[in-house]
Amino acid sequence: MASPDFSYGTLGFQDIIVTLDAGVATVLINRAKQRNTFGRVISSELLRVFELFDKDDRVRVVIMTAEPTAPAYCSGADISGGWGGLWKPESEKEGEHAHRDSGGVLTIAILRCRKITIAAVNGHAAGIGMTAMQLPFDLRFVWEGAKLTFPFVRRGIAPESAASFLLPRLLGHSRANSLLLTGEVVDPSSPHLQGLYHKIIPAREDVYPEALAYARELAAQTSQTAVAITKGLLQHPGATIEENHLLDSRALRILGGAGDAAEGARAFKERRPVAFADTLSKNLTSWYPWWTSIDIKHRQSKL
Amino acid sequence: MASPDFSYGTLGFQDIIVTLDAGVATVLINRAKQRNTFGRVISSELLRVFELFDKDDRVRVVIMTAEPTAPAYCSGADISGGWGGLWKPESEKEGEHAHRDSGGVLTIAILRCRKITIAAVNGHAAGIGMTAMQLPFDLRFVWEGAKLTFPFVRRGIAPESAASFLLPRLLGHSRANSLLLTGEVVDPSSPHLQGLYHKIIPAREDVYPEALAYARELAAQTSQTAVAITKGLLQHPGATIEENHLLDSRALRILGGAGDAAEGARAFKERRPVAFADTLSKNLTSWYPWWTSIDIKHRQSKL
Amino acid sequence: MASPDFSYGTLGFQDIIVTLDAGVATVLINRAKQRNTFGRVISSELLRVFELFDKDDRVRVVIMTAEPTAPAYCSGADISGGWGGLWKPESEKEGEHAHRDSGGVLTIAILRCRKITIAAVNGHAAGIGMTAMQLPFDLRFVWEGAKLTFPFVRRGIAPESAASFLLPRLLGHSRANSLLLTGEVVDPSSPHLQGLYHKIIPAREDVYPEALAYARELAAQTSQTAVAITKGLLQHPGATIEENHLLDSRALRILGGAGDAAEGARAFKERRPVAFADTLSKNLTSWYPWWTSIDIKHRQSKL
């Protein structure tokens, strides 16, 4: 999908509003009346749009945000119908092993999106508002007044959206324990969150504009292929440093022969801005992905 | 062991004093005359009591602490008889591979305790006072005046109690290197310790009371089964994010059908405190543990 | 190589100046006219000298630094001839999989050096100046005015020198993403770098003297064998905590029977400074290394 000509505004989404401008796609969470809770519709719409972003060469950076006047960035899963509303029908028929948490399915899709992803957290966040709606993103901007919590142990439920995998990787196990085993409500300046946010912003209404300005700069100055390969190396680094060395050596050799790297070296020498032209659909090496992708659908996967 | 009726005060411990109140068990290190050093007796008593805490439904949170008037929280291993006093007899007979470090045995037992564990470090700590007596706990409270050190390279010995495994996981390798390879004495506010302590407390005598108030709140507000499953997911998250997603999906499905999760959702809806009733002995899924536990006893284990 | 009698000053290096005094070896980067860029000569000289440091019993601590008047600590790879100048000839003949990044080769050699290693970053650093010239070191000292950047995505190239493996291990994935996926220029006080530097020093000309004073203290107070074993445990900790427990138990048992540990216990008891005499060539256990070293040379290794 080189540069498709559809407009994201025409795709008929209900719970999100999606726009694309100058290489930056914005996803606006559009459920203020439901406190921006996470339910079936937004789940499937986000899943679809992140798969599109991954393939659409026009997209270089993705931002997800909410209206700064909404009651929350995302106040958690919609459990107005109890937890039961969240189960996949398969798990009712075939047993608990057949359930697939929709937050986890979305988390994996966001991680697999090969563009730079930014969560612009301009409001309170709880539960899945902290996990799937934040942890799989590459960067997080946050309003300094946001109230943030992973409340699972206080609700009698397990952490979802692969938070028990991602949070220790992002911040280390000490902070992950402090957050996941207490369910405490914390501010962005809490010692338990240090390192999680790329930037903390005083005014709620400035979070998205600041993220957007940063995203535009990244969209203009970064190579689409180099970003994809770098995300691949960070997520699939090899089991040992020696294996990583073989992987990054090969990546360097491949990218170094391509257009963007030559342009990067020329621009550096000539002290001028870069003008990267390589795209994933035309220029990504066939060696990518160098790992085996795991299918998480029931019957395709088991432990 | 649903809710046994023995009192911890009757178990005849020598080097520790154990009490239980309102779901919170407290272990007081009781060797002030020996500067709270770690020796054979305290080692076996702690091992026994953490195995009891794990099984005793009455226990929801465990705190370990010392008298705030003691010379130290724990000043290290008792090497008054040289290092030789620490060797297991097997290693003398069968060779160095047969030795099992008692700090490591205790560390693994504390990690395997399925309740929330808190080290209330109200005094100086060195060596095993930093490792087995702190690192395997879920949360650490500390007195801001404590002098803290991992002195192994300055004693000609290796880091023990699996510190070379736990410290990088808790804080990352950069801080672990700064601590383990220099043996420097640091304060809780040192940049090398950032993230290790859940809370730093100005007055030494306030460390235990603050930890206790926090523990009581956790005991009242958290689900015993959700805590056990969350600890399991953090310690055994699966090798990949996809595997973690399968594990937490199953955990969500199992817990979501049980009493505590239903109570958690109802209490949230009704805006009232939770009243969790599920216990490990009655309500923990038979799927737990989903991993194979490794026996570390000599002859049951080898590399 | 017990204590060889050669002087590092006689080895005929061109791009580095190497001295040894009181157990501390200093490597001075000597390419100020080329902005201390990284090229073929310095690469092979550093590779050689770190292999010597590893084996030379006289060396207990290694410092790498630059003239504080140089334009930079290391301003990156020398790409005056484009990226092509960096490829190994094998990769031209045999394909991209045959390339071995020279920064990665050096990184692995520095990690394998069994002495304490310190990067004294007394100037700006970019690209390989941040990766191979800093990340594999045990400790990093830095000038607070240094401008630091991992610019790879802005040059159209992949992160090199195993940075995609090392940086997340050192600081966690959140900070590694913030650094590697944005290519931002940051100060040592940036939140994205917290934990990376052992010490941040106000005056540029004080960085090396402070590192040297610290290194001399470490050289006098630490055991060569305990340092080597500790580095081994940190880099090869075993796959599980149980495996780590077996490894550190054996390490404790081995070291505890040797000279340095006995001296460490005696000095502690007698409240006097230690006088460690054990050396790697004479006293390191034949059990070391307990892992299989992986050969990264082309044809000896493949994925």
From TrEMBL, chains A, B, C:
<dbReference type="InterPro" id="IPR029045">
    <property type="entry name" value="ClpP/crotonase-like_dom_sf"/>
</dbReference>
<dbReference type="InterPro" id="IPR051053">
    <property type="entry name" value="ECH/Chromodomain_protein"/>
</dbReference>
<comment type="similarity">
    <text>Belongs to the enoyl-CoA hydratase/isomerase family.</text>
</comment>
<protein>
    <recommendedName>
        <fullName>Peroxisomal enoyl-CoA-hydratase</fullName>
    </recommendedName>
</protein>
<dbReference type="Pfam" id="PF00378">
    <property type="entry name" value="ECH_1"/>
</dbReference>
<dbReference type="InterPro" id="IPR001753">
    <property type="entry name" value="Enoyl-CoA_hydra/iso"/>
</dbReference>
